[in-house]
């Protein structure tokens, strides 16, 4: 089981853009409290075509989902939207380094 629900509406992505952000070499994490009374954690992933072709973007998306499944339930902020924006260096970055970056970003933004 995932431990989060998926954001699909553009308006939710735009609303999260006004939240806190933390940039790493592989991704940018945005966290925005929704200010509603629902305690669920939501995740959105976005990767532009500048990063690479469809194969590269899908691979990066799979890596981000694995990170989120592993870490968001424990370290994510309840009642908040979390947006992962893929960066150019994210696909070559070692998964252990991405995991460390994600832990640091969640610690800083969700504390």
From TrEMBL:
GO CC, any one term: ribonuclease P complex
Catalytic activity, as annotated: Endonucleolytic cleavage of RNA, removing 5'-extranucleotides from tRNA precursor
Source organism superkingdom: Bacteria
Matches recorded under InterPro entries: Ribosomal_Su5_D2-typ_SF, Ribsml_uS5_D2-typ_fold_subgr, RNase_P
GO-annotated biological processes: tRNA 5'-leader removal
EC category: hydrolase
UniProt GO MF annotations: 3'-tRNA processing endoribonuclease activity; ribonuclease P activity; tRNA binding
Pfam families reported in the protein's UniProt record: Ribonuclease_P
Keyword annotations from UniProtKB, A to Z: Endonuclease, Hydrolase, Nuclease, RNA-binding, tRNA processing
Enzyme Commission number(s) from the entry: 3.1.26.5
Family: Belongs to the RnpA family.
NCBIfam families on file: rnpA
PANTHER family the record matches: RIBONUCLEASE P PROTEIN COMPONENT (PTHR33992:SF1)
Assembly and interaction partners: Consists of a catalytic RNA component (M1 or rnpB) and a protein subunit.
Role description: RNaseP catalyzes the removal of the 5'-leader sequence from pre-tRNA to produce the mature 5'-terminus. It can also cleave other RNA substrates such as 4.5S RNA. The protein component plays an auxiliary but essential role in vivo by binding to the 5'-leader sequence and broadening the substrate specificity of the ribozyme.
The protein, known as: Ribonuclease P protein component
């Amino acid at each position: 089981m995932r431990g989060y629900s998926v954001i699909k509406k553009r308006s939710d992505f735009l609303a999260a853009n006004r939240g806190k952000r933390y940039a790493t070499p592989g991704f940018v994490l945005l966290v925005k409290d929704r200010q509603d009374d629902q305690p669920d954690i939501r995740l959105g992933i976005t990767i532009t075509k500048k990063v690479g072709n469809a194969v590269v973007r899908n691979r990066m998306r799979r890596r981000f989902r694995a990170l989120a499944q592993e870490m968001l339930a424990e370290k994510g902020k309840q009642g908040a939207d979390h947006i992962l924006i893929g960066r150019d260096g994210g696909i070559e970055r070692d998964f252990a380094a991405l995991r460390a970056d994600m832990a640091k970003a969640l610690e800083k933004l969700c504390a």
